[in-house]
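Predict the 3D structure for this chain.
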Amino acid sequence: MARDTKYDLRKCSIYQLFPFIHSKEGTLRKLEDDLLRIKDMGFDYIYLLPVQERGVLNRKGTFGSPYAIKDYYSIDKNIGTMEDFEHLVNKCHEVGLKIMMDVVINHSGCDCVYTETHPEYYLKDKDGNFTRKVADWSDVYDFDYSCNGLREELLKMLSFWANKGIDGIRCDVASLVPVDFWLEARKTLKNINPDFVMLAESVHSGLVQYARFNDFYAASDNDLYEAFDILYSYDIANEYNEATKEKKLERYINCLNYQQACFPKNALKLFHLENHDYPRIYNLVKDKDRARNWTAFSFLTKGVSFVYAGQECFADHMPDFFEKDDVDWTKLDKEHVLFIKKLNELKKAMFNDDDYIDITYEGDKAIVFKQKNKEEEYIGIFNVNMTNEILDIKLETGTYLNLIDNTDIEIRDNKYQLDNRPVLIKRKVK
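Done. Predicted structure below.
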């Protein structure tokens, strides 16, 4: 977290969506029809995948990647016009939502207007040709941040969108863009909107290692916290995969506790179970009760909560954003919608998440956390592996109210019989 990151972000949640596949029409205007539903679930921000015109040169798939941008001052004609975007921003604010847009400035599309007007903005190979640092990203060319003109132009571009009324940015592969630029960007954007929020896609540790081994820039999470309010949890993605796919909890829980020890106490991580790059949680765990327990843990533990559109349908298909691969809203699970709404309510009611959270596990049975202040504590029990075993838990014998579903929880002799319910208990500290 940057020094001026606001504490109330700890109670926030973000709803990610791709306008092009959010509806059959795939337009910004049609998206407005869903804003009240998203707000009613308790979300604070909607986060839009890139909305600008996509490149054609070296395009992948039918429509190309939204992360290969041709014109940074445009709106993709498939989703609407600039007037439509401005109308969406105003509509979000009317219903009480804030809006965050994706910013892609490590690279541009191969036919970006800058390749013609400002070729000096780009990284070149030994023969003077435009190039990229990650070979697989064949539809983009990388920017060269040693060019001061590039930096000035990108700050101008970010200001253009901030002045449209957006409330924050999610920064694509932020680790590969110099932190000193992000610090300049933060200052510029905060001058426009003091409440502006910056979310970094901090990358997998493997990509940081690859970059540094190949002698190009990559920032660590510690570096990025200087400029950003919130960081992705990709630093422990391998451990998360092990926990969800293989039901092995030890390394994941140890890493969560290590994050609390090595980052500043009030640092914020984004707890996404899925996103546009990452498999659907229901695809990973193959069970609705397991998915609910993971969802509850991701909302109620320390950090910013996150849902990718379709997660409330228990979608198991990760959309292909090179195609018109719409979310299947016929599978909307009304019970799961209410469940997410309840989690958002509880998150906002809990005391500040900068209070330290002790996260534990017992074998691979369940995840348990305790969060407390001087007067009260919350205890969460999440049966993420759907075992029916008995859990050792240091609670006095008695009946406790599960705040998630308002059912009773029985504790006998420091033992709890696990069932399919995620549990949150609140009690006075003695």
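The radius of gyration is 22 Å.
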